[in-house]
């Protein structure tokens, strides 16, 4: 009759059943509700060194260095592009000023000119008004047409060639004097239309 309570529980089988339930609970992964929440407003506690794979801290440092290097490289690239754009703008301004000085007072356009001379420039048909002598000189290649500030200026061949050496796309019309006077399509260049 001196059986203890423990011995009585073991005999009845209740204790064995409780021990098996505890073993099952330990094998099951913890559910989110059973895990203690992380500290409020902070990071979850770092895993112990034994649980952390070797080199993990080094990977984080390497990743941070990689991001810093990438950001620095991108900043240097942006700076280089901005410098190139500024240099291109400066060169354009210098060319424009040089052409302006070259053309200043050298335009041969006449207000009383009544004959239109059509030419193709920039994918469109353009027109400059000339007199009979200028038309003959233009078609012979002695004169050229330069586009500046939205206007088409009639200038001597030498001026047109100088403009062409500075900025070739501003020369709207400069006939080759050695050409036979026929266009690629078989139509004479000086045909009035």
Name its key features.
single chain; 193 residues; 3-stranded antiparallel beta sheet; two-stranded antiparallel sheet; 46% helix; rod-shaped; DUF2058
Structure description:
By secondary structure, this protein is α+β, with helices and mostly antiparallel strands. It has a domain at 72-179. Helices cover 46% and strands 16% of the residues. The chain contains five helices and five strands, in the order H-H-H-E-E-H-E-E-H-E. It has helices spanning 5-12, 14-27, 56-103, 132-140, 157-166; strands at residues 115-121, 124-130, 143-148, 151-156, 171-174. The strands form two sheets. It has a three-stranded antiparallel β-sheet with strand order 4-3-5. The protein starts with a helix and ends in a 19-residue tail after the last strand. The model has no long low-confidence stretch (mean pLDDT 78). Pfam families: DUF2058. It comes from Rhodanobacter glycinis. Residues 1-60 are annotated as: Disordered. This is DUF2058 domain-containing protein.
Strands of the biggest beta sheet: in what spatial order? 4-3-5
Q: Would you tell me the overall average pLDDT?
A: 78
The radius of gyration over CA amounts to: 45 Å
Give the beta-strand count.
5
Which blocks of ≥5 consecutive residues have pLDDT under 50?
none
State the end-to-end CA separation: 135 Å
Tell me what portion of residues adopts beta-strand conformation. Answer: 15-25%
Helix content: 40-55%
Shape: rod-shaped
State the helix count: 5
Reported for the largest beta sheet, the result is: 3 strands, antiparallel
Q: Strand pairing plus helix content: what structural class?
A: alpha+beta
Helix and strand sequence: HHHEEHEEHE
Pfam family, one: DUF2058
Protein name: DUF2058 domain-containing protein
Organism: Rhodanobacter glycinis
InterPro entries: DUF2058 (IPR018636)
